[in-house]
Design brief:
Blueprint (H helix, E strand, L loop, with lengths): L1 H13 L12 H32 L8 H7 L16 H25 L4 H24 L21 H31 L1
Helix pairs in contact: 2-5, 2-6, 4-5, 4-6
Length: 195
Amino acid sequence: VLLLGTLLWAPWWALHGAPLAELSGDQDFQLFLHKNLEFTRKIKGDVAALQRVVCDTFQLCKEEELLLVRQDLGIAQARLEQCHSRTFQAEACFSQIRDGLRTYQGSLAAVLELLPGHAGLVETLQLDAANLSSNIQQQMEDLGMATVTYPSEGQGPLPTFSSRFHHQVGGFFILANFQRFLETAYRALRHLARL
């Protein structure tokens, strides 16, 4: 019995006492996590579809070929360091996911300008990002979590692109960064769902 208790406690200890221990069995919280895991998966699929459009339309498909241009563009990746398991804090992670979704919702305007023929998909993605951000905000309020707003590093107004090519590469990196952001957010939600 002692060994079993130790084994059951080990995952919590490894996470430095993730603060949601009391919520792990909460049905509403679990429902929230599972619904938003599906929602995040849908958004990831839509971002991937837009990435294919950028690849097919502009032949911008490989990130490593564009790294030199990227340095000139000043397109920042929304931060999610609070969602990595070593430093995991649920309130901080949720706050960063919420803030990052708002950032990408805004930066998708550059993609919308770039791909007017795919406005429906881009607008759906903006709406989905806004809805997921609102879901997370609402859940945090429902759970009585402190909401933290992280300073947005280099994420002010949209970058101004000096050429059509820079705009295309900028759109490529906005989508690539958003996809990475969503993968990390998905892993964080899945991690919470397994606790």
